[in-house]
């Protein structure tokens, strides 16, 4: 309920200030450009300040540009962020877990990790539907506020035969 209220408030704020194309807080919004279109992700530094800071740092270095969605499970999620495309790589900086009570529902963006809760790095995923079995076990650091229909188009597979990739990932404050 709280997540839905948050998304509603973000969308209402965006509409009040010039329509959905304008981000409510450009410093805490990501533009995820896919082949299919632009996805806007509202960052949640209130839940995961260290994860948000790291994703923004990597986006500003263009780390994610060209990286594939290497694990896409229908009815679950699309995972990306591994520069090797194998699901085993990362940026080389591990992050401590920032678990919260925020539920994993459709459009939630979370940090992927290994068995160790403090092993998240650059990999992340977007939920296709409610995934509340992840609650309290993974870090929520964002939510899709626009363009979920483009996320739904990402090709499925582990890995997909012809995987989709991130065209670019930018902090909205830096985008032109």
UniProtKB/TrEMBL annotation:
It holds the Pfam family Pro_isomerase. Its EC number is 5.2.1.8. It comes from the Bacteria. Gene3D superfamilies: Cyclophilin-like (2.40.100.10). Keywords: Isomerase, Rotamase, Signal. GO terms for molecular function: peptidyl-prolyl cis-trans isomerase activity. It catalyses: [protein]-peptidylproline (omega=180) = [protein]-peptidylproline (omega=0). InterPro entries: Cyclophilin-like_dom_sf, Cyclophilin-type_PPIase_dom, Cyclophilin_A-like. Residues 37-176 form the PPIase cyclophilin-type domain. The keyword Nucleus does not apply. PROSITE patterns: CSA_PPIASE_2. Residues 1-23 form the signal peptide. Belongs to the cyclophilin-type PPIase family. This is Peptidyl-prolyl cis-trans isomerase. It comes from Nisaea acidiphila.
